[in-house]
Write a structure and sequence with these properties.
237 residues; alpha/beta; six-stranded parallel β-sheet; three-stranded antiparallel β-sheet; 11 strands; binds 2'-O-acetyl adenosine-5-diphosphoribose
């Protein structure tokens, strides 16, 4: 008899958004949208050239605003609606495609493109418009201290208390479209497995932490995830 899971954790990475037209990180010679990751996604890069970093995320914001969720995001919506379990989504993605697909319980551990944080007062603000080195914080009125609310290399991840709780409780851990290179997220599967979860990954290429998964499903998530989700739902009926 197929197993019924009471608690499911889903970890997503750039691969789940690839079919929505957004670039992954490690697909083009270590460049991300033609920039070195360390130039646009590290604290040192931001300190060195904040104008370039703002420009980069302002452009990415426009691209993300236009992107639409794909069949993989929508399969998760279906899972959350129809499967009788607590289902949490931990995402490394700064895009908002899970929200656009009306996914619930989404935790953005690497931040969100549509937010900025003031380095002077710590206030996090909704910011779909451009943010730059002259933006004034509406909370503390100080100019030039806004940073995209993206977790750069060298910074702590967000929502980690909640994430640890999710990983301990889950009985099934599903990883979708992440290369398993960037820690701590790459270690989440290990924690889930340690606490007894079944583990499955959806990926195009072999991942760096593949030995921690019980099952590997290769191919585009937009094609491979929907039938898997259908099967899970059918088994729970
Ligand atoms: P990567 O670019 O490292 O990995 C993308 C993964 O998705 C690879 O394993 C691909 O095989 C897989 N993939 C690509 N297209 C796919 C598709 N259509 N269906 C299924 N899988 C597909 O992206 P991440 O693992 O998300 O951090 O990168 C982790 C972090 O590195 C990012 O969150 C980012 C970056 O530095 C921050 O921005 C803080």
């Amino acid at each position: 008899m197929a197993k019924i899971y009471r608690n499911i954790a889903i970890l997503t990475g750039a691969g789940i958004s690839a079919e929505s037209g957004l670039a992954t990180f490690r697909s083009s010679n270590g460049l991300w949208n033609n920039h070195k990751v360390e130039d646009v996604a590290s604290i040192e890069g931001f300190q060195h050239n904040p104008a370039l970093v703002h420009d980069f995320y302002n452009n990415l914001k426009t691209e993300i605003q236009q992107a639409k969720p794909n069949a993989a995001h929508l399969a998760l919506t279906k899972l959350q609606k129809e499967y009788p379990a607590e289902i949490n989504i931990i995402t490394q993605n700064v895009d908002t495609l899970h929200e656009k697909a009306e996914n619930q319980n989404v935790f953005h551990i690497h931040g969100q493109i549509n937010q900025a944080v003031c380095l002077n007062c710590g206030q996090v603000l909704e910011a779909w418009g451009d943010v730059d080195t002259e933006t004034v914080c509406p909370h503390c009125q100080v100019m030039g201290m806004m940073k995209p609310n993206i977790v750069f290399f060298g910074e702590n991840l967000l929502c980690m208390d909640k994430v640890e709780d999710i990983l301990r409780k889950c009985e099934l851990f599903i990883s979708i479209g992440t290369s398993g290179v960037v820690y701590p997220a790459a270690g989440f599967v290990q924690l889930a497995k340690y606490y007894g979860a079944d583990t499955v990954e959806f990926t195009l290429d072999t991942t760096a932490n593949n030995y921690l998964f019980d099952k590997h499903i290769f191919g585009k998530a937009g094609e491979t995830l929907p039938p898997y989700i259908e099967e899970l739902i059918k088994n729970a009926e």
